[in-house]
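F.,

This is the one I mentioned.
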């Protein structure tokens, strides 16, 4: 019984650890208190988040408390804390005093640097981020939502602080449930100078008087030694239902561009598919029938083409161990991506579920270690490797180690900047436990099963003496074929990549997982096809060193991804702090490495299957 209870408790804490916020609606009764939580201050310009209370904002009377909910949030650098705003369902307020603060010289400098770096305040109410509404005249006066609002503004060398907030909430009610659900949360930041007068009946001992003529009296930080923080609250009924309350936030990215991106990827795929179909159906079929009809010896002596290298085509490549490790890890990444996409399509990872995406990617990468270990073991057996322990250990440690090392180094830099984006050492430890406690054993388990199975049968025997490779024309040189090969998979994804980059670096929401799934599907097919086509051309010109090249042919698209990130950096971001530059390129190189493993192993596995099939269908004596 005790054990059962223990299990239940452990299960409950696990569920809490991977809890996703915003799954179920909350109903508030009339006058019920509604919590306003504050998240990190973010800046597109520095990419270094800071805790809300690093600036002299009003601390809640009961003290500051954290309410971070899951691993994904911590890894994303979220720092969610409580606040002193007193909100009650359906109770309007005007010019409510939050607190008064003295504005010291240090505070002034802190505010100034953060206003210069375009820092935004991020608030959360009922799991919805505060949005600032603005009208886009180019879109016919349609309103758009911006995520968060600026700390203050800088104009003609003067710094104005946003010290008065107009919070407007939308609520919805229906006879299906009791109470009210929050369906909208907008903030309009203002900079004003309020008067205060003592009021013994208020808990703060005074009250504020906000003037209506706003522009005459901006809160200029150079002219005042005290900041008065105030807020207005309005509650208005809305027809919007709870399930669609995220729609306004997600309007931010255009839908048409995604259709264009799909169309573009489809064209690339169709073009390639046509080419591969032509190879497979016409040339290859002709080759195979010709090879099999050749009866006499002198006819066989005049053979040309890929059949000639049948005695070498499965010759062990150089650095075979590294190749199987790369493919194993690539399969791990592939598994992670596919299952994450599936979860996303089922709606588990929408932006309403803070931290969910990152967290599930971490966990899935860990669990996919089984497939990584299995794949690398089976391939290593093909290469008749005798050092399976090293190969397995490398699969478990090599690429994850590189990624962890980069991540750890970047984290040190973030930490040195005292940013909340730094992952605390306890979380770092948790990541290490996931890696060494779960992922490494799973890789070994997978590789154990992989070795127990019979080796993959190869259709032709390898000769003792390697064949001479004839001189290759310039367009068959490895660098050239890889450079050409990588363009197509990259071309299939680059428009969607733009949106992913905006969500990573510009704090926009990414939610079109349906499009992403289509694009990933097209990417998989494109990688397979380009590698098969290039492998075929290579074998036709009697060059049998295809193992690595089939990996590189599609994997080289990662180089283009990295180049794209350089372009994005110079055209879209105004980052000038060197730590932030370092962060950007550090994370982009991790992303490119993952993309390299993913696309490379798809190309490799497809080519391997292709080569086995074509050499299995000819007669070799
Ligand atoms: C609160 O303000 C909103 C917007 O001005 C208004 O529609 C609503 O009727 C007000 N509610 C109350 C209880 O006064």
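My design for it:
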């Amino acid at each position: 019984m005790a054990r059962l209870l223990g299990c239940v408790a452990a299960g409950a804490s696990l569920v809490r650890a991977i809890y996703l916020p915003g799954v179920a609606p909350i109903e508030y009764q009339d006058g019920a208190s509604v919590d306003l939580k504050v998240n990190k201050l973010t800046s597109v310009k520095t990419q270094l988040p800071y805790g809300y209370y690093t600036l002299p904002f009003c601390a809640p009377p009961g003290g500051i408390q954290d309410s971070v909910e899951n691993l994904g949030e911590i890894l994303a650098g979220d720092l969610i804390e409580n606040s002193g705003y007193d909100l009650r369902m359906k109770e309007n307020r005007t010019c409510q005093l939050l607190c008064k603060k003295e504005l010291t010289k240090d505070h002034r400098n802190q505010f100034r640097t953060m206003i210069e770096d375009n820092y935004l305040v991020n608030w959360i109410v009922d799991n919805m981020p505060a949005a600032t509404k603005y009208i886009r005249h180019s879109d016919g006066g349609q309103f758009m939502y911006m995520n968060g609002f600026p700390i203050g503004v800088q104009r003609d060398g003067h710094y104005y602080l946003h010290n008065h907030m107009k919070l407007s909430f939308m609520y919805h009610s229906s006879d299906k449930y009791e109470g009210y659900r929050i369906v909208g949360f907008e903030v309009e930041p203002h900079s004003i100078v309020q008067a205060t007068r003592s009021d013994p009946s208020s808990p703060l001992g005074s009250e504020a008087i906000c003037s209506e003529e706003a522009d005459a009296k901006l809160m200029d930080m150079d002219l005042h030694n005290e900041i008065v923080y105030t807020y207005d609250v309005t509650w208005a009924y809305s027809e919007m239902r709870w399930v669609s309350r995220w729609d306004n936030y997600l309007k931010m990215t255009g839908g048409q561009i995604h259709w264009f991106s799909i169309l573009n990827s489809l064209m690339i795929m169709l073009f390639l598919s046509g080419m591969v179909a032509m190879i497979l159906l016409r040339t290859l079929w002709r080759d195979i029938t010709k090879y099999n009809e050749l009866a006499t010896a002198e006819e066989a002596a005049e053979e040309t083409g890929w059949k000639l290298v049948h005695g070498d085509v499965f010759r062990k490549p150089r650095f075979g161990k590294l190749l199987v490790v790369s493919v194993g890890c690539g399969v791990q990444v592939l598994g992670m991506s596919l299952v994450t996409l599936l979860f996303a399509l089922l709606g588990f990872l929408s932006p309403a579920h803070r931290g969910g995406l990152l967290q599930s990617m971490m966990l899935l990468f860990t669990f996919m270690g089984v497939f990584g270990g299995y794949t690398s073991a089976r391939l290593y057996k093909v290469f008749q490797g005798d050092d399976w322990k090293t190969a397995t250990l490398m699969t478990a440690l090599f690429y994850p180690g590189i990624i962890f090392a980069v991540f750890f180094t970047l984290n040190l830099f973030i930490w040195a900047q005292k940013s909340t984006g730094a992952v605390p050492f306890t979380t770092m430890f948790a990541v290490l436990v996931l890696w060494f406690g779960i992922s490494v054993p799973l890789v070994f388990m997978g590789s154990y099963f992989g070795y127990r199975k019979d080796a993959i049968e190869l259709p032709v025997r390898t000769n003792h003496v390697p064949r001479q490779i004839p001189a290759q024309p310039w367009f068959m040189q490895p660098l050239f074929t890889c450079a050409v090969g990588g363009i197509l998979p990259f071309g299939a994804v680059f428009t969607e990549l733009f949106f992913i980059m905006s969500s990573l670096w510009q704090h926009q929401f990414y939610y079109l997982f349906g499009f992403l799934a289509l694009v990933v599907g097209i990417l998989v097919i494109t990688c397979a096809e380009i590698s098969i086509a290039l492998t075929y051309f290579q074998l036709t010109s009697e060059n049998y060193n295809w193992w690595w090249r089939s990996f590189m042919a599609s994997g080289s698209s990662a180089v283009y991804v990295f180049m794209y990130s350089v372009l994005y950096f110079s055209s879209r971001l105004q980052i000038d702090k060197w730590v932030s530059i370092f962060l950007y390129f550090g994370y982009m190189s991790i992303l490119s490495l993952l993309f390299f493993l993913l696309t490379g192993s798809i190309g490799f596995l497809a080519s391997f299957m292709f080569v086995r099939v074509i050499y299995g269908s000819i007669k070799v004596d």
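DSSP finds 16 helices and 17 strands in the chain.

Talk soon.
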